[in-house]
Write a structure and sequence with these properties.
The chain is mostly helical. Helices cover 65% and strands 0% of the residues. Helix 5 packs across helix 11 and helix 10 runs antiparallel to helix 11.
Amino acid sequence: MTTAPTPVPATASAAQSGGGATAGPVTPTPAPATAATAATAKAPRPAKRRAGGSRAWLAALPLLLFFVIGFGLPAVAIAIGAFTTSSDAPDGGGTFTMDNLTGSLQGAYWTALWGSVKLSLLTALIATVVGLPLAQAVATSRFRAFREAVMSASGVLANFGGVPLAFMFVATLGNAGEVTKKLGLTKHGWNLYTFSGLSVVYLYFLVPLMVITITPALEGLKAQWREAAYNNGATSVQYWRHVALPVLLPSLLGGFVLLFGASFAAYATAEAMVGSSVPLISMQIGDALSGNVLVGQGNLALALGLDMIVVACLVMALYLPLQRRSAKWLA
């Protein structure tokens, strides 16, 4: 006796190919999505472009025009005049020459340039050393009134210079000044109208400038760094030596360079107080522009100005990378 085989229902593919009847309705399977279709589905829609976005740079156009007119054109005129003869030269002027530039780096002019560099280095260094602890006291103070008072005063004093500053020091610390007479400073060798006296006057506006410059960097020091150092047994001196100062070093160097530039470019205060008794490059430029030069050397003042521009460009070339590095550390 044989057993009849059990019927097996045909699949959808067999029914389509062989034409056999199926036990039930066949549900069609969806076709697989291609790679192009998936990429199209996942691709983000392009963001709508803001109306007028291409004209956003027009907002900076007035500043650019001011920079070109106020700084660019004078710098080009100085550079051209430094390498050409003046109008009072025997050849009528306008011819190319290197005498102006070489003359600006010799004799009294070189002494004045080196004097300005020494004064700027000394005052910037002292202002950096004095301004750092003062800024630290401001940054860590719990009294908001003290902080606001110091920062407001620093903002005012950093921009206080020129003839009023010179008059204030002459009236107080000059040879006949009130403080000089009451304390007898002249007997101890004090003289305001010297290199040392001028350095003291410059510190009056450089120290507040350092406070303004370094305070944001001090506020960027994270409290977790100090706590981690103390939890590992470090003292305050070790924290500042191994943690805080390495982080603040770019900001300190940047502030030092900024103070150097401010001291190097100062003119009115020194002119009103010491005149030509202290050799400075800014004083030599003033004398040259006022006509205190030999015949045929009228463009020597432009060469001296070009020397100052070169020094200022070197200062900015050092300041900008330090500022970017400081912002990266304290972000």
